[in-house]
Design brief:
The structure is a single chain. By secondary structure, the chain is of the alpha+beta class. It has one domain (2-140): Nuclear Transport Factor 2, Chain: A. 40% of the residues lie in helices and 48% in strands. It contains four helices and six strands, in the order H-H-E-E-H-H-E-E-E-E. The chain has helices at residues 2-35, 38-43, 61-66, 68-78; strands at residues 45-53, 56-58, 79-91, 94-107, 110-125, 128-140. The protein has a six-stranded mixed sheet. A hairpin with a 2-residue loop joins strand 5 (110-125) and strand 6. Helix 1 (2-35) crosses helix 4. The protein is globular. The termini are far apart.
Length: 142
């Protein structure tokens, strides 16, 4: 009986540890944006990542790196992003992370205060967590 309880607890611990690693990878992506590290941000994305934002779609790491990544870095450098809530779910080598955020910035001469939602799907590929899908949505504060 003790052996079964031990195995169950180790299984639970392993699942939590994997989810935390995925959360750490997502946090590293946002840190790379804030620090302006384009190479690190791109490294955390799967080659076939799909990114949804404001009704637009980017269908690969290369497409995102050529289009919105520089803009996202420029914005992140001026912004203060606070994670209000995080939820996560782990299924094997996939992790889903939902975040609610509040962001303030002075960007292009304008004061910005927005609340955002982010849904991220990460997959463990070759021992590393990679972001395979992100969906960003935001609204202005009232």
């Amino acid at each position: 009986m003790k052996k079964i309880a031990f195995l169950l607890s180790m299984s639970l611990f392993s699942s939590v540890a994997c989810a935390n690693e995925a959360t750490d990878a997502l946090a590293a992506f946002h840190a790379a944006l804030t620090s302006g590290d384009k190479a690190r941000a791109a490294e955390l994305l799967a080659a076939d990542v799909t990114i949804y934002e404001s009704g637009y779609v980017e269908r690969s790491r290369a497409e995102y790196a050529d289009h919105h990544l520089p803009e996202d870095i420029a914005f992140a450098k001026t912004a203060s992003r606070k994670v209000l809530q995080t939820s996560e779910r782990m299924e094997g080598k996939l992790a889903m992370i939902w975040q609610e955020t509040e962001t303030t910035a002075k960007h292009k001469g304008k004061n910005i205060h927005i609340f955002g939602t982010e849904t991220s799907l990460l997959e463990k590929q070759d021992g590393q967590w990679r972001i395979v899908h992100v969906h960003w949505s935001s609204r202005k504060s009232k």
